[in-house]
Amino acid sequence: MRELAFLIVDLPSVYNAILSRPFFMSFRAVTSIHHLKMKFSTPYDVGEVLGDQVMGRTCYLSQVTLVVSDRIDRDLDLRDQATLQTAQSGEATEVVPLEPVEPAKCVHIGGFLTAANRNQLISFLQKNSDMFTWVFANMPGILAEVILQKLGLDSGHKPVKQRRRNHSVKKLVVISVKVKRLLDTGFIKEV
């Protein structure tokens, strides 16, 4: 009769025991991962332990879900919040619309300008409002070949539908806002 010392650890695991090389050497055991078998010698015959593929898969999946459920699903901000400072304007600003028909197109100017400087700056900005880029279509000079991404698709292959990913409600809201912004600016389009 052979004895073997085990180290008992209080951790959640799908395994009953983890056997290492000293065990296999002392029991003269041979394993075959491919066949899911372990054979070892006994005083009378050769003992055999058969693995179960379904049970092995179940154990693996339960271990994976255990690891995933233990993971914290949030972004960690490692910055020191006490010393974190955001950039602030040195003075109060005033919002000035560049075009009266489109109030969304506006800029910020200093709030402590004299009336003459303020009027001069506003007239200059409104006169040169065509220099501001509000949408992608207003960006001349960028070649479409630089911006567009072409997928290397072979017409001889059947298209494969990707598996739908499940996201949390919070992530779905962020995704839909970003997709809507890209659609509105014309960066992407539905095909």
What is the element string, with H for helices and E for strands? HEEEHEEHHH
Care to count the β-strands? Answer: 5
Shape: elongated
Number of helices: 5
- Quaternary state of the chains: single chain
Please report which band the strand proportion falls in: under 5%, 5-15%, 15-25%, 25-35%, 35-45% or over 45%: 15-25%
Helix content: 25-40%
User: Which radius of gyration do the C-alpha atoms yield?
Assistant: 33 Å
**Which structural class best describes the helix and strand composition?**
alpha+beta
- The averaged pLDDT comes out at 79
Q: For the largest sheet, list the strands in their spatial order.
A: 1-2-3
Poorly predicted runs of 5 or more residues: none
Largest pleated sheet:
3 strands, antiparallel
Cα distance, first to last residue?
71 Å
Written overview of the protein:
The model has no long low-confidence stretch (mean pLDDT 79). The chain is built from five helices and five strands. The strands form two sheets. The protein has a three-stranded antiparallel sheet with strand order 1-2-3. The protein has a two-stranded antiparallel ribbon with strand order 4-5. Among the domains are: 21-70, no CATH class; 93-132, no CATH class; 137-150 and 168-191, no CATH class. The protein has 191 residues and is an alpha+beta fold.
Quick recap:
The chain is α+β, with helices and mostly antiparallel strands. It has helices at residues 21-26, 53-70, 115-127, 144-147, 169-185; strands at residues 29-32, 37-41, 46-50, 93-99, 102-110.
Task: Identify the notable features of this structure and list them briefly.
about 190 residues; alpha+beta; three-stranded antiparallel β-sheet; two-stranded antiparallel ribbon; 5 helices; about 30% helix
